[in-house]
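Q: I'm writing up a methods section and want to include an example of the input and output format. Could you take the sequence below and give the corresponding predicted structure tokens, formatted cleanly so I can copy it straight into the document?
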Amino acid sequence: MSPAPPLLHAILQRRSRERFDPVRPLPEPHLLSLLEAARLAPSSYNLQPWRFLWTMRGDPDFAEVLRALDPGNASWAGDASALVIGTFTRAGRRGRPNRWAEHDLGMATAQLVLQAVASGLGAHPMAGFDAERLRASLRIPSDLEPMTVTAIGWPVDESLPPRERLPLERITSRGRWPSGEER
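A: Here is the clean output for your methods example:
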């Protein structure tokens, strides 16, 4: 059996950081490059159902997004340089709903996060927020569903525990699902 090719450095380095440099600004072109990486993500039928709103630390809307976060997330996300709200639309082909819209937003968000890591930034996607508060304060249209808020910024060195992940053999199976095995 031949050795496996190495994983991308950005995948190995990715962590959900909770400490960002509260002073160092993020130039807008840096953030736009992350959004460009998200734009280029694959999507079912190339529908690209994701829509991103973003705000930079110091913008009035940054404070609005912070107020919509769960208290635990808000306690550290205020030091991020930018907050990116990931939304999706269910509008699909031929008037049918797109049942893969959330998956596609996840793909776009993953590319945004990996581009951030490859650029020396930290990124932390969050699910802990009040979607209706975001909808109201940022005037998000009713056909868009807020799904994530990603904090992005320059990471502060922090000692992070090793990542805990299920072993590969527990989450994969070649061919048929093994009978009688819990996954």
